[in-house]
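Researcher: Quick test of sequence recovery. Tokens follow.
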């Protein structure tokens, strides 16, 4: 009994120390991660005339100033830029939700000649570098009269290969019996999509919305 008690003490101590060590490591990693942000904050409050080796210091060695923020805000029409970005991101997402829903349903449930080949060709968009499409998209926008407009910026992104693939896989996993039940009740194609597939695919729509908004916000900002 004495030996068993003596052996259990170190084990209990290790169980108590393990979470503490883990928390200490996480806090140390967080401090290292915060160093660039701290340097950016300190550097942004230094006067423009300040320079030299002291720029790399994390310790404020001159009187901080907010004039840099004032100059940066006055250098451009940022409220308009933010409004344009919000309109573009929201507009792209709104149209994408419609196109990926219809395309995903077609590839998952409808039968038509060349469906698999067309689906694979559609997925080729995922392999294209976005920079390659800049000139063709700009040329097409100019031809249809959308040059230098918000609609011209949004139009090339209305169709999403990733979103179509995601919704195709999501719709294919939904039991067909649910659609058959709606078909027996007299629901047409759009009604089946609206009342059967969309409610069951809300998590996939939410995941796609996060990816779409994040990607296009970073591109436009």
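Model:
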């Amino acid at each position: 009994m004495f030996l068993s008690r003596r052996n259990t003490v170190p084990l209990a101590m290790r169980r108590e120390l393990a979470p503490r060590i883990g928390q200490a490591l996480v806090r140390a990693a967080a401090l290292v991660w915060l160093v660039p942000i701290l340097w950016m904050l300190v550097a942004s409050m230094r006067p423009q005339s300040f320079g030299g080796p002291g720029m790399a210091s994390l310790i404020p060695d001159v009187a901080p100033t907010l004039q840099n923020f004032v100059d940066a805000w006055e250098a451009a029409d940022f409220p308009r830029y933010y409004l344009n970005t919000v309109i573009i991101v929201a507009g792209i997402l709104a149209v994408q939700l419609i196109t990926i829903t219809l395309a995903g349903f077609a590839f998952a449930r409808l039968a038509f000649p060349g469906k698999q080949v067309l689906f694979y060709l559609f997925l080729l968009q995922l392999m294209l570098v976005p920079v390659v499409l800049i000139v063709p998209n700009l040329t097409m926008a100019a031809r249809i009269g959308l040059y230098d407009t918000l609609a011209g910026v949004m139009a090339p992104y209305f169709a999403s290969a990733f979103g179509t693939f995601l919704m195709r896989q999501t719709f294919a996993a939904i039991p067909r019996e649910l659609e058959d039940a709606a078909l027996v009740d007299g629901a047409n194609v759009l009604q089946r999509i609206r009342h059967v597939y969309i409610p069951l695919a809300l998590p996939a729509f939410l995941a796609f919305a996060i990816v779409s908004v994040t990607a296009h916000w970073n591109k436009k900002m």
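The radius of gyration is 28 Å.
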